[in-house]
Each structure stands twice: as C-alpha cells, then as structure tokens.
Amino acid sequence: MKAGMVLGLMLCVLAARPAHAAPPARLPGTAPLDWQGDLADRMMDGLHRYIERKIAASPEGRAAFWHRDPSSAHAYEASIAENRRRFQKIIGAVDPRVSGQLERIAADHDPLVVAETDGYRVYSVRWPVLAGIDGEGLLLEPRGPAAGSVIALGDADWSPEQFAGLRPGIAPQQQFARRLAENGYRVFVPTLVDRGIEYSGNPRVGYTNQPHREWIYRQAYHMGRHIIGFEVQKISALVDWLRSQAPSDKQKIGVAGYGEGGLLALYAGAADPRIDACLVSGYFQRRDRPWEEPLYRNVWSLLTEFGDAEIATLIAPRGLVVEYSAVPEVLGPPPVPTGRRGGAAIGKLLTPDWSQVEGEFARISELLPADFQPRHLVAGLGDRTTGPGSDEAVTKFATLLGVEVLAPPASAAPADKRAHFDPAARQRRQVGQFEDYVQKMVRGSDAVRADFFLGKDEFKTDSAEQFAQHTRAYQKYLWDEVLGRLGDRPLKPNVRSRLVYQRPRWNGYDVVLDVFPDVFAWGVLLVPADLKPGERRPVVVCQHGRNGLPRDTIEGDHRAYHNFAAHLADRGFIVFAPYNPYRGEDRYRLLSRKANAVKASLFSFILAQHEQILNYLAALPGADPQRIAFYGLSYGGETAVRVPPLLDRYCLSICSGDFNDWARKVASTDARYSFMFTVEWEMPYFDMGSTFNYAEMAALLVPRPFMVERGHADGVAPDEWVAYEYAKVRRLYDQLHLGQRTAIEFFDGPHTIHGVGTFQFLERQLHWPPDDAAER
After folding, report:
1. Which among 54, 374, 411, 654 has most CB atoms closer than 10 A?
2. How far apart are alpha carbons 452 and 414 in whole angstroms?
3. Cis bond leading into 684, ω under 30°?
4. Percent of the chain with pLDDT over 70
C-alpha cells in the first residue's frame, strides 16, 4: 500500500477517534519533531548560512554570463556589449542624458575665476545631466593646451574645493585633482552627494538620520534607479561635452577617484567605453561580504555576474590603475540627533586586507590575456596602504593618458577668491534635484507600469482565459527579475511533526518540511476533529505579519489577528499557519540585503518555502488540492500579493492590512505613510515601482478570486491610496466578467483582521460548508 494511502487512512482514523481520546503525539506518517528552542531563530540562522554559501559560490557561476573575445578591440567590445548593458541597468544608469553647454558660474559679487596659478585657472561650473538634474563642481582649466582631460572624484565627504586645495580638510599629498591640473590636465571635480543627513527628510513629515546617499538610494532603487547610476551619469555627461569639443583621437579622457569616488571611477569606466583610463583608489577588493557595507552601495544581482575583477574587464582594453589606499572609515549609521527619526540602515566601511585587493586584482588575469589591458596595482612599502593619490599611482595613470613624467607637486595651493560661496547650498541642490527627479518618477509610475504590462494590446481583452495566458511571462518576470528566484532543486520534505494544540473542534501540530540544505518551512497545521473518511475539505493558509509567529494567529486574541486561524478551523476548514522569516528586525533585513547581491530577496526564500508547503498540503489526506486559499495580514498581506500570484496552486488570495499604492508607500518623500521615514529599509525592490504595483500583482491572479480587507484607521496607508489601487483591480475583473470573484471590505477599525466579509468570501469562493450537510 502506498505511503499516502496509509497516511490517509491513519488521518481518517485520527479524525474518527472518540472526542475524549488523546490525539497522537505526531501526525500519522511523519517523523517526530524533536527540535528544541526557537524555531524562528533556527530558521533564520539556516537562511543566513544558505545565502552566504550562494554568495561565496557566485564567482564560479559568473563565467556563464560572459563570452569575451579578445581577438581585437572591436571584437571584444561586441562580445561584452550585453554585459555592459546589464551593468548599466543594475546601477540605474539608464535614462537618456540631456545635451547642453558647460556653464561657468559665479554668485553675485564673486569673481568668475575662483582661483588661479601660473599654470591653470579654477572655475565653478555646472552642466546638464538628466532632465532637471545638473552636475556641479570645479573646473581646473590649464592656461595652455590641455594634456588631456580628467574627471577627478574625491570621496563623497570631500568637497571639490578641498580636493583642489582651495579649502582645508585634505592633506596636500592627497589632492591629486590639483596635482593633475599642475601637469597640464583639464580637471573636472564634480560634487558628489555626501554622507551628511541635513536634507534627508521632509518638513511636513520629519527628518531622519539617513545619510544623503541612503536617502536617494531608498527612493531611487524602487524605481530602478540608483545614487550610483545618477552619479555615473554626471560623469558621462561630462564625457558627452568633452567629446563634443574635440575628436576622440585627439582628446584622451581619464577618470580617477578615491573612496566613493573610486567606486564611481570604476563603475563609470565600465559603463562608458569612451573613457580612456581609470584610477581607482580606496575601493577595489574582493566583495564576498557586500552586506557589511552601507546600504547605498547595494546593487541588485551584482555578484551574480560582476565582482570587481569582472567590472575591470568591462574597462579593458582601456587602462586601469588600482591603488591600495585606506578607505574613508564609516563605523555605522549616523547617530540620531534630537528631533529626528532613526531608521538608517546598518553598514560600515573598513580598509580591507591587502590579500583581498591583490587576490581580486589577480583574478583579472584569469579572465583576460595578460597583454590585453595595461593595468597596475599600486601599494605602499611592505604591501601596506598608500595614497590616495600616491606619486606612483598618479604617474602610472598619467602615463595611460599619454604623459609619462609628472612634475613634483606645487608647494602651495591657489586661494579661493570667493567671499560668498556656500558649499552647503550646492549640496542641497544636488540632493534636491535627485529627489525631485525620483519623485516625479513615482508620481508618473502608473503610466510607466501600464506601458510595461496592462496597457499593452494583448491585455485589452474580455477573455479571462486569454488574459491569464498572456500574464505567464509577467509572472516569470516578477519572480526572476524583481523578487528573485533561488533556482535550487528542493529536497524531499522529510516531514516532521509534533502535537502542540488540543481543542474540542481541532488538533494542532507543528510541521517542519525541508526545502534546501539549511532551509526549512515551518507552520502549524490545524486538523478538524470531524473530518470524515474520504472527505476533501478546503485549506486556508493563514499568514502572520512582521515579527509575528504562527501561534499569534491561533491563540491569545492578539490585537492584530484575533485568533483568525483558530476561528477558521472552528468553522471546519483545514488551516495551515506558516512562519514567514520576517521576525528579528535587522536580521531579516540583512538576510534580504545579502540575497540582493545574488539576485534574490526575502521573498525568494518565502516563495521557495511556500512551494514546498503547497506540495505538502496538496498531498495531505482530507485536503482538497484545488481549494487551497491564502489569507494574510500586514507583511502577510504583502505576501498575499507576491506569493499566490506566482504559485498557481493557491486558488485565491486575501490581502488584509497592506493593500495600497505600493510605489508611493515605499518611495514617496512627502507622505507620512511612506517607508522612507521608517526602519523598513529592506522594502525597496529594484525597479518594482516601474513594473509592478499592487494592481499589477493582483492581475497575475486572474482568473482566481482576490479580496482586500481594509480598516479605516489602519495607519499603513490612507483609504484613498487603497481605494485608488483597488479600483484598477475591480475594473479589470469586471472587464473579464469576473466581478463576482473580487471584493473589498472597508470596516471601522485599525490594522487588524476583521474576519467578517473575508470569512464570507472564503466560504462562498471555496464552497464551504457544503449545501448538503450529509456531504460532510
């Protein structure tokens, strides 16, 4: 007899036992669950181990993305074109730049020439980058013909004036922007968004302790843009202007940077093949622990295809100099000043060991022929740090641009002639322009998403069957490109269980299922006591929210859940209350951050776990595999619009306490409901705001039923956001003649399960209880 038949008979025997008989200590046909301690902590530990192995193994998988052809420069460029395009996308450098002239600017009563020496003059300059975004900084212009042009990028906290020696704060020997100007180079020194916090917030809502770079990152990332990509675009806009001034064969262009500027120099050289040489100081290394860095360095799927060595191959055959310098130290998020909100993400910047830099640089030679790219690694005596801007590094960089001998540094820097210049005002403009640009994207995102998905001609149909067929590609895109698919083959479930509840109408069991090595699914199964032999009942999966546990949905009359899982079991449903790993605050956020590096997210794990849960529930004796429903609150409601739309075996979904205009919820900077002002720094999903909002994800459920439960006093979002987004769902279901399969219930209450209209919806859509009581 098959194991499933044995289990079925045993479950029926279990259900048929006298009411006074004690249920067995574990579910029939399962192994005993003898784990001790907190299962949620055990799960989180395993998930972290699993994803760290994925990250450690990522270099081995990168070769599949590359087909380098170094037979010639032209052949090589063609062979890496798609890699470059994907790199530009993930750093958010995708918008068309605007053309325009470089402007020399001066405030009232300040001279046009900011400073000057016998060899060069210094100007304050501005240049167009994107619509509404300008670059600003300094231009050090030689008095005679330029030896070449260099875009010099200091660390984010260096002002252009400090880098050029006009203001104190940086040691003279580190002012390599000035050193290059002294040797005849035209040098641009752009202003970078710094790590200050002054402008991170909104006076109508509040101010935060997020560094400016994180403030821009969090809103931009959700819209498929990035603080890194914006600043790479600043650099490319200068290259646009330079190439318009002189033919490429007469004007060499280099980019050199330190710290955050070193990152940008490496990335700009990789993204823009018109740059002839790169100097990267205080950045290049093996990136096997990227989650330890500040959040604004997080790049979706980066390590799947690109380590620093692979990025260096996007610069080839152009020249590269890497300087092993001490990085600008960042020991964590800024402290929270009085009157500001916290919420900045964890993250540090510390100088790597020499072996991490040397080892990653050596990997370039494993990817390219030794003579295909001129490249140099520079360190101090005894392989200690040097620079930034050491004589050796700057000389090798200048050699790549055609000047082999540099004059020694000048002993004195030029003096700033401006009396009224305020660098803080320039920083405020830079932060404000990036924010304005992203907020315009947020406000216009409905149209962008329509162009991507539901506005396309194939979805202008009244056939639910045709509509659902067309959504298949979008289900795949959401999973693969936005949420991330782990892709491993699941283990056999190896089901273990133990009795945890005895109630008059049902018994409850902890159930654990293996998913991947170190990854398991866990939940509590509530089995009705009156389940008849051969009967097939609907199953409701009841999902808790942030920092919740399965038991919160079952006992204790928690103010958010009101025992809704237990109440559904009382009504005769088989109920499964799974644990989703969003408990432990920064532990689960850090898990998602780690996963981002290899094109995954928190929902990558949750989807894999729910696939295994569905495998289990579909084979469960007494359960009807065609009637497995999902009902979640809060983060469980977020799950309701991400998991059932992608897992077809969920026959319906109910989103409670979460449904709203998600792009505004995540990325808007003028609403008190926005995650921009909270600790939920894991909420942005790369490019989700331009591809899927809640209406689009709900559309992936068609033709399955979908419902929203919404309390008027729920602080997650205002009623207007919820109603606006749901109206799109209602219109779609009506268009497809499925109006009876969707509903929204507003009730006068807070962020909680109401359990009135939703229970009726479940019973109606799942045909429970049967019309004929004898059928039970």
Report:
1. 654
2. 53
3. no
4. 96
CA distances to 19, 34, 472, 535, 571 from 22, in Å: 8, 20, 47, 22, 21
Three-state secondary structure call for residue 426: helix
pLDDT at residue 434 tops 60 = yes
Over residues 50-66, the pLDDT tens digits come to 999 999 999 999 999 99
pLDDT in tens, 317-369: 999 999 999 999 999 999 999 999 999 999 999 999 999 999 999 999 999 99
Burial 591-618 (b: 16+ CB within 10 A, else e): bbbbbbbbbbbbbbbbbbbbbbbbbbbe
Distance CA(680)–CA(103), nearest Å, equals 41
Print burial letters for 507-530: b (CB count within 10 Å at least 16), e (below 16): bbbbbbbbbbebbbbbbbbbbbbe
Q: Which pLDDT value is given to residue 14?
A: 47
What tokens appear for 558 in the block? 């928690």
Neighbours of 439 (CB within 10 A): 17
Instruction: Please report which confidence band the pLDDT of residue 107 belongs to, taking 50, 70 and 90 as the band edges.
Output: confident
Closest CA to 743 of 713, 763, 716, 714: 763
How confident is the model over 477-535, as pLDDT tens digits? Answer: 999 999 999 999 999 999 999 999 999 999 999 999 999 999 999 999 999 999 998 89
Burial of 131: CB neighbours in 10 Å, binned 0-12, 13-18, 19+: exposed
Q: Please, are residues 284 and 262 in contact by the beta-carbon 8 Å criterion? A: yes
The answer to whether 660 and 694 have CB atoms below 8 angstroms apart is yes
Non-local CB neighbours of 373 within 8 Å, separated by 6+ positions: 312, 313, 315, 316, 317, 318, 319, 320, 364
Q: Are strands 120-130 and 519-528 parallel, antiparallel or unpaired?
A: unpaired
**Peptide bond connecting 317 to the previous residue in cis, omega within 30 degrees of 0:** yes
Handedness of CA 214, 216, 222, 224 (dihedral sign): negative
Which residues, other chains included, contact 85 with Cβ-Cβ below 8 Å and sequence gap of 6+?
none
Alpha-carbon gap, residue 545 to 524, rounded angstroms: 15
In angstroms, the CA 605 to CA 515 distance is: 9
Average pLDDT value over all residues in the chain: 95
Give every CB contact of residue 659 below 8 A, 6+ residues apart in sequence: 637, 641, 694, 708, 710, 722, 725, 726
- What would the two tokens of residue 525 be? 């199964």
Q: What whole-number distance in Å separates Cα of residue 543 and Cα of residue 520?
A: 17
Phi/psi of residue 509, nearest 5 degrees:
-130, 130
Main-chain phi, psi angles of 206, to 5 degrees: 155, 170
Which residue pairs, CB below 8 angstroms and at least 24 apart, start in 285-291? 285/352, 285/356, 285/357, 285/360, 286/352, 286/356, 286/357, 286/359, 286/360, 287/360, 287/597, 288/55, 288/56, 289/55, 290/55, 290/597, 291/590, 291/593, 291/594, 291/597
Q: What's the CA gap between 547 and 634, in Å, rounded?
A: 10
SS3 label, residue 603: helix
Whether residue 467 contacts residue 461, with contact meaning beta carbons closer than 8 Å, is answered with: yes
Assigned token pair, 36: 């001790």
Q: Note the pLDDT tens digit of each residue in 166-215.
A: 999 999 999 999 999 999 999 999 999 999 999 999 999 999 999 999 99
What is the edge-to-edge ordering of all strands in the sheet holding 574-578?
31-32, 496-502, 506-516, 519-528, 574-578, 537-543, 623-633, 652-656, 706-711, 742-747
Rounded-to-integer distance, Cα 764 and Cα 484, Å: 34
Q: From the centroid of its chain, how far is CA 27?
A: 40
Q: Is 771 exposed, middle or buried (0-12, 13-18, 19+ CB in 10 A)?
A: exposed
CA atoms within 13 Å, Cβ hemisphere of 414: 23
Return the H-helix or E-strand segment holding 105.
strand 103-105
Residues 236-254 pLDDT 10s: 999 999 999 876 567 899 9
Cα distance from N-terminal residue to C-terminal residue, the chain:
26
